[in-house]
Amino acid sequence: MIPLRDTIPSATVPVVNYAIIAANVIVFLYEVSLGPHVEAFIFAHGLVPRDFAFTNLVTSMFLHGGWLHLLGNMLYLYIFGDNVEDRLGHGRYLIFYLLCGMAAGSAQTLLNEGSRLPMVGASGAIAGVLGAYFLFYPGARVVTLVPVFVFLQVFEIPAVFFLLFWFLLQFVSGVGALHSTSGGVAFWAHVGGFVAGMVLGPTMRVRRPARPEWA
């Protein structure tokens, strides 16, 4: 399933979300410019569980392994991030995003601590955005491109179902990959990020004053 947009318009200009997307694109273009030296750059700044470094919790979430990896992540961030930024406010959203990414990287490290392969990508932090969106906008719908046999169909899917399915898929895939020694998708980073978003989102959201009953 490929999300195309949601049905909740942004109430403010999501400047932080746009800035995060721009930062990811700029860093990836720098990666491309490195040519054969990109592998050393990834190992230096990606998150390697066996050689854990705190600073790499942050740097790893701005690195990507290819165009599809980058574009897929940025699509999800573009669709869901603006509304979460609305609810948290600009400054809090940036802190929230970084904390979720760090929680995601920590979860993957704890469950795959022997790995020597670098983990890269914004998907753990974005999973946190999805976790907060799941709580903040239960009535939203996601316009989604769904393959039906050999055809592509567009459906409006309730956001709670779309995101719950996404989370369960990550969890089940993570359980299946627990004993794998090869690289691949960091499913536990997704699970950890989503849970972090559900925990941090309600505690960091802007408390708007209640409307008087006569209003």
The CATH homologous superfamily is termed Rhomboid-like
Give the number of domains: 1
In round numbers, the mean pLDDT is 91
The CATH architecture would be: Up-down Bundle
Strand segment tally: 3
User: Largest sheet, if any?
Assistant: 3 strands, antiparallel
Binned, the helix content reads 55-70%
Percent of residues in β-strands: 5-15%
Overall form: globular
Strand order of the largest sheet: 1-2-3
CATH topology: Rhomboid-like fold
Structural overview:
The protein is mainly alpha-helical. The chain has a single domain (2-204), classed as Rhomboid-like fold (Up-down Bundle), CATH 1.20.1540.10. The chain is 59% helix and 10% strand. The protein contains eight helices and three strands; from the N terminus they run E-H-H-H-H-H-H-E-E-H-H. It has helices spanning 15-33, 38-45, 54-59, 67-88, 90-111, 123-136, 159-176, 187-204, and strands at residues 2-6, 141-148, 151-158. Strands 1-2-3 form a three-stranded antiparallel sheet. A hairpin with a 2-residue loop joins strand 2 (141-148) and strand 3 (151-158). It is globular. The relative contact order is 0.17. Residues 210-215 have low confidence and may be disordered.
